[in-house]
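U., I forgot to send this yesterday:
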Amino acid sequence: MADRFEGRVALVTGGASGIGASTARLMAAQGAKVMVADLNEDGAAAIARELGNIGSSTSADVAAFADVERAVAETVEAFGRLDILFNNAGIGAFGKAPDMDVETWKRVMAVDVDSIFYGCKAAIPEMRKVGGGAIVNTASISGTHADYGLGVYNAAKGAVVNYTRTLAIDHARENIRVNAVCPGPVDTPLAASLIEHPEISKEYEARVPLGRPGKPEEIAHAVAFLASDEASYITGAMLVVDGGITAHTGQPVFTSYMSGE
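Result:
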């Protein structure tokens, strides 16, 4: 599939590590020219160096429209066009409503939700110029179900899920497809405090039907599919990549008690 994205240009936010870095590498391996954007300027530059002359990088705080607008402009300046936008950057925070710091709430919503609007506002005019494009947003199973103590993250990712649907129907007639990937637990720097916690790790092993957290590259393959022509009739979709965790009702594992498994 080395020519899957031949002639296309992608902008990946949050591209310095985790799912973003894996997606940048995969799209480049499949022919795309890739701009890696991240607040971690050195990390983004390191990924771009890996990609060689089909990679470039920029520093961007996705919570600031000026930064996102500049990242889009720099992508077009470097590679001549923009075909794919992966709105991937995101953060989370713990805390029930009475304990949640107001500024923390605002920051999570800005990074996780405002950034999607900013990216689309800046990128869609460029996609119109080339006859269409594909946008993939990183949502989460936390945008479709609730988690204890993750109210702001649940709210943010829930907004991403429904905003993705609106973007999809608003721009379908312009040949711009908009979808979201909804990962479950994934072994990334963002989730390290959970994945590496001994007791939580055991919980994941028990609760995830496939028995483990996902790998960033597994999410990257889902993103690449949604951005590719193979998904040409898919828009407004939420692709869940969670090892089967949301397939479960949450009730006890009856077979463990009824049949001695």
